[in-house]
């Protein structure tokens, strides 16, 4: 974490970035792994020096992608937003790009000011894998009835305790209730896309939701199983955690 020095007029900048997560160990900086946060901090240091502090909108796991990811950066550096965007895109690796940069209110926070987030999960539903989608979609060769899955997924919608759809880590669990605003399953050719919007997400929540739907497609769970799994509040009753490769943070709403 960078620390801001005293003095100067502090500015708050909102960076909207996109990244290919295949070569990163997630967003959050780690001591022994290359992350998106490290790449962005390194580029920022090249452009404006060490005097800044940044906050990301969400954690993302290793191998997860982002069509839209938001970062708030506090700095006293006077560089105009459009120049900062251009300069960062020269220094960042080709797998990360800054799409937009603008000044925001002093109390804006990329994570805590967020009203909802939307994730998509891509499934290449074909007997034959696509070499061009390796690392960017889950290859699933067995039949999927997207209409049945869409109907089953409506049980996710609403405010629920999602303990059954969360991998607990060493943090305090706290309140595991989240409000899912929408969940859809659609198909275009061989590509099946699952899309979910919620006011917040738990660790591995989307990937477990997807894995549970795939268990239904395999006949290992009934298509009416989600309400009972939610009531159990027990991770062992849900399906497996789907691989990270198909997951994208798609939209962040403020």
Secondary-structure content class: alpha+beta
Number of domains: 2
Give the radius of gyration.
Answer: 20 Å
H/E order of the elements?
EHEEHEEEHEEEHHE
* Helical content (DSSP H or I, runs of 4+): 10-25%
Question: From the coordinates shown, what is the CATH architecture of the largest domain?
Answer: 2-Layer Sandwich
Mean pLDDT: 95
Cα end-to-end separation = 24 Å
Q: How would you describe this protein?
A:
The protein contains five helices and ten strands; from the N terminus they run βαββαβββαβββααβ. The chain has two domains: 11-103, Pseudouridine synthase I, catalytic domain, N-terminal subdomain (Alpha-Beta Plaits, 2-Layer Sandwich), CATH 3.30.70; 116-253, 2-Layer Sandwich (Alpha-Beta Plaits), CATH 3.30.70. The chain has 254 residues and is of the alpha+beta class. The protein has helices at residues 36-48, 81-91, 146-153, 205-217, 226-232; strands spanning 11-19, 52-56, 65-75, 96-103, 116-124, 138-139, 158-161, 177-188, 191-198, 247-253. The model has no long low-confidence stretch (mean pLDDT 95). Strands 1, 2, 3, 4, 5, 6, 7, 8, 9 and 10 form a ten-stranded mixed β-sheet that branches. Helices cover 20% and strands 30% of the residues. The protein is globular and about 60 Å long. Helix 1 packs across helix 2 (81-91).
């Amino acid at each position: 974490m960078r620390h801001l020095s005293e003095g100067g007029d502090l500015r708050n900048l909102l960076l909207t970035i996109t990244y290919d997560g295949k070569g990163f160990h997630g967003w959050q900086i780690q001591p022994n792994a290359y992350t998106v946060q490290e790449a962005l901090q390194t580029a920022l240091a090249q452009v404006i020096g060490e005097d800044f502090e940044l906050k990301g909108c969400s954690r993302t796991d290793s191998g997860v992608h982002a069509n839209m990811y938001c970062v708030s950066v506090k700095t006293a550096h006077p560089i105009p937003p459009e120049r900062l965007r251009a300069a960062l895109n020269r220094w960042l690796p080709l797998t990360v790009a800054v799409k937009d940069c603008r000044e925001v209110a002093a109390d804006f926070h990329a994570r805590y000011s967020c009203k909802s987030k939307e994730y998509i999960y891509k499934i290449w539903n074909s007997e034959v894998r696509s070499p061009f989608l390796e690392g960017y979609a889950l290859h699933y060769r067995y039949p999927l009835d997207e209409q049945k899955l869409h109907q089953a997924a409506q049980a996710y919608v609403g405010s629920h305790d999602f303990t059954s759809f969360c991998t607990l880590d060493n943090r305090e669990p706290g309140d595991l209730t989240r409000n899912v605003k929408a969940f859809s399953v659609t198909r275009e050719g061989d590509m099946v896309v699952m899309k979910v919007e919620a006011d917040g997400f738990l660790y591995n929540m989307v990937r477990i939701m997807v894995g549970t739907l795939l268990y239904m497609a395999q006949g290992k769970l009934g298509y009416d199983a989600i309400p009972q799994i939610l009531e159990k509040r027990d991770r062992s009753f849900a399906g497996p955690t789907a691989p990270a490769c198909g997951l994208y943070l798609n939209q962040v709403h403020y």
